[in-house]
């Protein structure tokens, strides 16, 4: 069994560089059997993929993790440690200590833990400055031992700098990053490298679109073809980036690189982002209780293997396609701007 590489966040939490994403149990990717989802998590842990990413708005994700973690602990002292990163995603409104503490306590109850490994804070509207108030309370709770790592989700570079300048130590920022969406490389990477902030990335496989399954295929547009929230969301990103024809050129290039390395295309797409400066880890979605985990686990392990090394030739071939795309910083804005008007 390959050893899964780890990264240590500033607060000391060691996590896998490939994280198991739990957005897929939110209900937007098909009906989820909770019992089967809990059971399916064991295969990831057995493979050494022990880090799970979830949120308070991902349907039953926190409860599923709590049931699994409780079951794992009851199995004996030899049970491997798992790491749980959750998100606090409030609607803009009053952010006094009681409001924030109530939300954090609810996550702890659902996850059946006495403290949270990592809270990744998301805020919808920058014009409402109460995100700074909320982060102040989260920082206080971190000092009190309720939170180990205080992180962000989908914050742009300007706000990341603003928060850091207030003395709030940010461990990581979760942003979209892929061969298609390379906005973090424009401004955010440099700031993160200078301030010891890790990027945890999602969308790296574009919901499954960056795989052999879509190579040479007609453009999907119907709900039947774009049958999950991920596929629908990332198809819109591809449309903005350059369209289906250019995307097919990218898939053909990735497939050629994958052939040279004797691996699936998903491994190349994941490795490409793992090798980027400031990227601590890549979040790969797990359809727990919905689909067979076997191939996903194998691809995740292969993508972070030291044997997979993208060459200068590989990177040049990919760049030859991506440089023909639109500038997403111009069309969308910095990281996370797609979630704000």
UniProtKB/TrEMBL annotation:
<feature type="domain" description="NADP-dependent oxidoreductase">
    <location>
        <begin position="19"/>
        <end position="321"/>
    </location>
</feature>
<protein>
    <recommendedName>
        <fullName>NADP-dependent oxidoreductase domain-containing protein</fullName>
    </recommendedName>
</protein>
<dbReference type="InterPro" id="IPR023210">
    <property type="entry name" value="NADP_OxRdtase_dom"/>
</dbReference>
<dbReference type="Pfam" id="PF00248">
    <property type="entry name" value="Aldo_ket_red"/>
</dbReference>
<dbReference type="InterPro" id="IPR036812">
    <property type="entry name" value="NAD(P)_OxRdtase_dom_sf"/>
</dbReference>
């Amino acid at each position: 069994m390959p050893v899964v590489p780890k990264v240590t966040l500033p607060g000391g939490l060691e996590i896998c560089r490939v994280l198991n994403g739990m957005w897929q149990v939110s209900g937007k990717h098909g009906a989820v059997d909770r019992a089967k989802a809990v059971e399916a998590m064991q295969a990831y842990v057995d493979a050494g993929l022990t880090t799970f990413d979830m949120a308070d708005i991902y349907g039953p994700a926190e409860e599923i993790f709590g049931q699994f973690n409780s079951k794992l602990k009851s199995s004996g002292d030899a049970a491997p440690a798992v790491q749980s990163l959750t998100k606090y995603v409030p609607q803009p409104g009053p952010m006094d200590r009681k409001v924030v503490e109530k939300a954090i306590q609810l996550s702890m109850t659902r996850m059946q833990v006495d403290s949270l490994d990592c809270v990744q804070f998301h805020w919808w509207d920058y014009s409402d400055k109460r995100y700074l108030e909320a982060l102040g309370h989260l920082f206080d709770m971190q000092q009190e031992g309720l939170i180990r790592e205080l992180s962000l989700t989908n914050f742009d570079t300007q706000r990341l700098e603003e928060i850091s300048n207030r003395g709030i130590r940010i461990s990581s920022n979760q942003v979209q990053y892929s061969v298609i969406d390379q906005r973090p490389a424009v401004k955010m990477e440099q700031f993160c490298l200078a301030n010891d902030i890790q990027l945890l990335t999602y969308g790296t496989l574009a919901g499954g679109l960056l795989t052999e399954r879509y190579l040479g295929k007609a453009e999907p547009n119907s709900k039947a073809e774009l049958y999950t929230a991920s596929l629908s969301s990332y198809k819109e990103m591809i449309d903005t980036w350059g369209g289906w024809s250019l995307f097919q050129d990218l898939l053909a290039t990735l497939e050629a690189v994958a052939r040279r390395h004797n691996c699936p295309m998903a491994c190349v797409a994941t490795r490409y982002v793992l090798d980027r400066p400031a990227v601590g880890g890549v979040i790969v979605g797990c359809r727990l209780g919905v689909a067979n985990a076997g191939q996903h686990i194998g691809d995740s392990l292969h993508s972070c293997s030291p044997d997979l090394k993208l060459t200068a030739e590989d990177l040049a071939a990919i760049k030859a396609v991506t440089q023909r795309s639109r500038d997403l910083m111009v069309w969308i804005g910095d990281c996370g701007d797609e979630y704000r008007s």
